[in-house]
Write a structure and sequence with these properties.
The structure holds two protein chains of two kinds.
Chain A: H1 3-18, H2 21-28, H3 34-85, H4 92-102
Chain B: H1 2-11, H2 13-26, H3 29-36, H4 46-60, E1 67-70, E2 79-84, E3 92-97, H5 114-122, H6 129-151, H7 170-182, H8 184-197, H9 199-202, H10 207-210, H11 245-255, E4 262-268, E5 276-281, E6 294-298, E7 304-305, H12 314-327, H13 333-361, H14 372-401, H15 409-430, H16 433-458, H17 460-468, H18 472-501, H19 512-518
Helix pairs in contact in B: 1-6, 2-5, 2-6, 2-13, 2-14, 3-18, 4-11, 6-8, 7-13, 8-12, 13-14, 14-15, 14-16, 15-16, 16-17, 16-18
The chains are: A mainly alpha, B alpha+beta.
Chain lengths: 103, 520
């Protein structure tokens, strides 16, 4: 499991969640604009693809694919728990991504 | 579709819960063994262990027609020897060696992580019924997965949605859905591969696809198939086998002494002119369990032999990849933890499904008493979901508390597990439902949370050594036990709150309209 791939997966899933009315309202307390929805969806899927690429580069195609799916499951579970109990902290894990990218 | 989902999920739900939980523990099979046998610690290289093992076998199994050696690697500590007793029988002797000295270890007898591995597909039932039951359960799970996807009307709309603390069924259903949807590829993989692993048992007519006739037997991929033809006739004269030491030098030159080097040694048909010695390399990060690298030697002359041709076609290759995915031996520590978490999510998926069956039907139970069937499901739920973790905790306690030199100690540990589980069932039948849930969850939590303390009290020197050597297996196990205890405590607290919300027993769920009226 590659930390960069996990965080990219988390960021992608978070974008996709924020492109959904219910979660957007819970996090930002305002309605979701249609253009923003499209942008978030594109960003979300792109980040997921990037995360798959990072997993591939780190582990090769076979184990990369397995580890990518496992990463999505666990990142999605963490995101769900955050959206449930601390909706405004959804961004916290992304700080790590910025740190990693800056390195 | 919903009724099919409901009933396939319920009928073998308790078996599935047990399979998922013990199967999840199996991801740490060798780490659990290390914790349960703290006397054995890995030292030296696998190659040095192989040399020590060869010397040991040459003294204790001189006349044996067949040897197996399983060598330590980064996850296992001891060398395991297995050899066929001389005389042509099917009796095997086994011994666990200290890898450094090559002498038998003086360690507590235990099944270790092997217990969880065996239990998750044999369920302590006589062969082959456990495997058949596990197969039927896996088939039910597969049907429940497919029907669950169809029945889940808001698959995408409810993504990432867990409305915790909502009254009634809502939060349970959300949790059930979230655990199902996020790890869905994992569940399909694990369930389907479970069926494929024993496919020759469940659908014997397809056997020829897996091992195509006319090709050589597969290279050590299945231990049980290879040795069958190797039954020596007693009237033969004994042909002295070649010594292993020069072959081990060749192995070292090819694969090195440490890291991804030799993992298994098979010596077949010792004492005959057909004797062959096979060295199998550690699989490393490779998904498929087939096509492992091997070095083969003629057992009489010691000359290197050509590698076996890879047998089987696409069917075998698919089988081996699915088998490998199921075992997840390719996974490094981080990925293995992810698999473990997904296994726990799967356990929770089955558990929440079982609980929802009762929550949904409780309001329909009119009359002073619950119907027998409903009561039975509630009690079995308690005995499985709360009782099985409790029994597992008791197994670990027994591992530390039973006298080290007790005869048949490994079996006594399992007896403790089974007795604890039976007591949990009796307790669930005897007590009212909510107190039974709370008491079992709390006791289980306490046993798990206190386990590291017990570890320190009973085998303190091993824990200290683990700390000094940064033994991830031992320390990780203790940490995981604290985590398990925490999860059970969380479940007990949730349940306590639920009971407070509905002080007068049924109805356990509130209709949405009623909830709105009572909400402040």
């Amino acid at each position: 499991m590659n930390p960069f791939a996990s965080l990219l997966a988390y960021a992608g899933l978070a974008s996709l969640a924020l492109a959904m009315d219910r979660h957007h309202r819970a996090v930002f307390a305002r309605e979701l604009a249609p253009q923003l929805r499209t942008a978030l969806r594109i960003a979300g899927w792109s980040l997921l693809v990037l995360s798959g690429g990072a997993a591939w580069r780190a582990h090769g195609a076979a184990i990369g694919a397995v580890s990518w799916l496992a990463t999505i499951a666990s990142a999605g579970f963490m995101l769900t728990l955050l959206l449930t109990y601390r909706p405004r902290f959804w961004v916290a894990p992304l700080a790590l991504l910025v740190l990693l990218a800056g390195r | 579709m919903t009724w099919l989902h409901t009933w396939t999920g319920l009928l073998l739900g308790w078996v599935l819960f047990a399979i998922f939980l013990t199967g999840t523990a199996t991801y740490f099979r060798w780490e659990i063994t290390q914790w349960m046998q703290p006397e054995v610690r890995r030292t030296g290289t696998p190659l040095a262990a192989a040399q020590a093992a060869a010397e040991r076998l040459a003294t204790v199994a001189t006349d044996s027609p067949q040897w197996f050696v399983d060598l330590p690697d980064e996850r296992t500590a001891a060398t395991n020897l297995l050899w066929r007793a001389p005389g042509g029988g099917r009796r095997f002797e086994r011994e666990t060696l200290d890898p450094a000295t090559g002498s038998p270890v003086v360690a507590r007898d235990t099944r270790g992580g092997e217990f969880f591995y065996r239990f998750h597909f044999q369920l302590q039932l006589p062969h082959p019924w456990g495997r058949y039951l596990a197969g039927v359960a896996a088939m039910f799970m597969f049907v429940a997965l497919i029907t669950g996807v169809v029945a889940h009307r808001r698959f995408f709309a409810d993504f990432f949605t867990f409305r915790a603390g909502r009254p009634g069924l809502r939060s349970w259903l959300d949790f059930h859905n979230v655990t199902a949807v996020l790890a869905l590829p994992f569940y399909f993989m694990i369930t389907y591969s479970a069926l494929v692993i024993f496919i020759a048992m469940y659908m014997p007519w397809g056997r020829q696809i897996l091992a195509e006739p006319g090709t050589a037997p597969r290279a050590g991929a299945t231990r049980s198939e290879a040795p069958r033809h190797a039954r020596p006739e007693t009237d033969r004269t004994w042909i002295a086998p070649a010594p292993l030491a020069p072959m081990l030098d060749a192995v070292e030159r090819a694969w090195g002494a440490d890291g991804r080097t030799v993992k298994r040694i098979d010596v077949a048909e010792r004492g005959t002119e057909r004797c062959v010695i096979t060295f199998t390399r550690h699989g490393g990060a490779q998904v498929s369990i087939g096509a492992r690298e091997q070095l083969r030697f003629d057992g009489v002359t010691g000359a290197a032999l050509d590698p076996l041709p890879v047998a089987g076609g696409l069917g075998t290759a698919t089988h081996d990849v699915l088998y490998g995915l199921h075992l997840a031996r390719f996974a490094g520590p981080a990925l293995r933890w992810l698999f473990f978490v997904m296994g726990l999510l799967g356990t929770a998926l089955v558990g929440t499904g079982l609980v929802m069956w009762t929550l949904k039907r409780r309001p329909q139970q009119t009359g002073a008493r619950l119907s027998f069937g409903h009561g039975l499901v509630e009690r079995l739920n308690i005995a499985t979901i709360a009782g099985l973790p409790l029994a597992i905790a008791v197994l670990f306690w027994a591992n530390r508390l039973l006298p080290v030199d007790l005869a048949g100690r490994g079996d006594r540990e399992v007896d403790c597990f089974l007795i604890a589980w039976a007591v949990a069932l009796i307790h669930a039948l005897a007590r009212p439902v909510m107190p039974a849930w709370r008491e079992q969850l709390r006791l289980g939590a306490a046993l798990f949370l206190l386990l590291p303390a017990l570890d320190a009290l009973t085998t303190g020197e091993h824990l200290r050594a683990a700390l000094l050597q940064r033994n991830g297996a031992h320390l990780g196990f203790d940490a995981a036990m604290l985590g398990c205890g925490g999860l059970l405590l969380l479940a007990a607290r949730r349940l306590g709150r639920q009971a407070l919300a509905q002080p007068s027993a049924p109805p356990l769920i509130v209709s949405p309209e009623a909830a709105k009226e009572t909400a402040p």
